[in-house]
Structures are given as structure tokens and as C-alpha cells.
Design brief:
By secondary structure, this protein is of the alpha+beta class. The chain contains nine helices and four strands, in the order βαβαββααααααα. The protein has a domain of 117 residues: Glutathione S-transferase Yfyf (Class Pi), Chain A, domain 2. The chain binds glutathione (GSH).
Length: 298
Amino acid sequence: MTEKSPENNLPAGYELPKVWTWDKGNGGEFASINRPTAGAQFEKELPVGKHPLQLYSLATPNGQKVTIMLEELLAAGHSGAEYDAWLIRIGDGDQFGTGFVEVNPNSKIPAMMDHSTAEPTRVFESGSILLYLAEKFGAFLPKEHKARTETMNWLFWQMGSAPFLGGGFGHFYAYAPMHIKYAIDRYAMEVKRQLDVLDRHLVRNQFMAGSQYTIADMAIWPWYGRLALGQAYGDAGTFLEASSYRNLMRWTNEIAARPAVKRGCMVNRTSGDPAGQLHERHDASDFDTKTQDKIAEV
Ligand SMILES: N[C@@H](CCC(=O)N[C@@H](CS)C(=O)NCC(=O)O)C(=O)O
């Protein structure tokens, strides 16, 4: 381990104890919902609507991946992808209710139930949900070996990379109770490296897996595309000069223009321009067509 002296620590004088203990009021955003234990904290059943697919989510980037996929499936004519999207307010701790924990023991959105199977099937983790839907409907996952493998490569790249953008950079840039240069430098460098990975790949590829739009694009766009659009963590796009990655911008804008993406971004959205929010979605007619050209802020 690198040599450390307590006066260089944050807060100054902090000494590492032998055993970590939980400091409930650490002041960071989300401090009130974070805790070091898993499992349900209160009794609460989840509502079930009329469609085969029941989604329990919120329009964070991880939530938007799934609503974009469902809207794309419906736009492509897969009527079996009709869904009810119920709002899970993670800031209020809805993810710790018994019903939600039964669908996702990890207490994080998005989570989905498929009631069209002989026994209802639970699906959690956004990547798993995207793959489940792609396989169920035979869509947005190429059949050809190379393109399918590339789709999976980039889908899993996203799962491993986005926590550095969200939990690392985003947290220390926007949510921590103080600005820690060391943490911001570390994660800004990593996120800029990731943006460069995407930019270099998109020089020769229209989409992440090549010429076809796939679940890999749907997984990556809500995180990195919206950062490029300046719609993540306040001024983070400017801070990271995200719009300077020209190939990433070209891809970002092409996907942002898709009507299904615009609709998907509105579902379970509770912040930003009220015209871009659809708290729950139960029917295609829930969208007000006049507002679909709005992609409000993350
Ligand atoms: N790896 C998970 C991450 C899901 C996740 O982190 N969800 C966040 C919102 S973006 C959440 O529900 N947080 C609530 C909490 O941590 O209590 C996925 O891709 O589905």
C-alpha cells in the first residue's frame, strides 16, 4: 500500500480503523437509502397490470435501457412486448419493499416479471433483461456469429464500464458532499478513456456491433450518449469535453433521433421538463405525441 499520513487524509486526521463501521450520516446524496445490508425492509406488494411484461423501474440510464428496448420491440411490431411500467422511487426506498426484493434480491431497478411463461419469470440486471427480451422476441441481437459476439462484447463492456462513470465519476463529481481532487481525477481520466474507446470504435462502425442497431447500443447510449449530449450529472459533459468525441456524437445523435428512444426516455421519468415525463406507462396511448421530441435532462 502507498505510504499515507493522517493529515493528508480526507477529512484531515482520519485514521483507518481496523474494522469499518457504518457512519449513517455521511452527508452524501443517497446517504439516507444506502446501507450495508441486503434484504427487504418493509412489507409491500407490487402492482400487476394487464400486460405480459411488468416492469418496475425508474428512468435512470439503467432503467432507460429497458424502456428503450420495449419501445423498440413494439415499434418493430412485436405486440407481445406490451408492458406496464410501474414507478419505483429509489430515493424513497421503494426498492426495499418485500415485493420488489422478490423480483430483484439486489434491490436495484430495473426489474421485470414475465407473466407469459408457464410460471411467471423474474428478470433482473439491465443486461440480463435486454438479453432476455432479445432472445424472447428474436430481435436486436444478430444471429450471425461475428455480429452476435460483438453485440455481447459491447453489452458486457457496458456492464463493467458504466459503474466507473456512474458510481465513480458521477458520484464524486455530482453527489459527494465535497470535491475530492484525487477521486475526480481518477474517474475523469477513466471515463475519458472510455469515451475514447467508443469514439475510436465508432469511426468504422455505424453501431456498436457493426451495421446493425442492437441491444449493445441500447445499453451504452443512455450512459455515454446522454453524457455526450450534456444530459448527465449537471455540467459533466462540458467538464469531460464529451461532445469533442465526434464519432461518438454522430452515433449519439443518430440514436437520439429514433422515436422509440424518445418514448423510452420518458417512461418512469420523474425529473426535468414535466412534458417529458411519463410516470407510469400502461398503453401506447399514454404518450402524448406532441411531447415525444423532448429528451429531458437525466
Ligand atoms: N447492474 C445493475 C445496476 C442497477 C442500478 O445500479 N440501479 C440503481 C439506479 S441506476 C438503483 O436502483 N439504485 C438504488 C439503490 O442502490 O438503492 C443493472 O445494470 O441493472
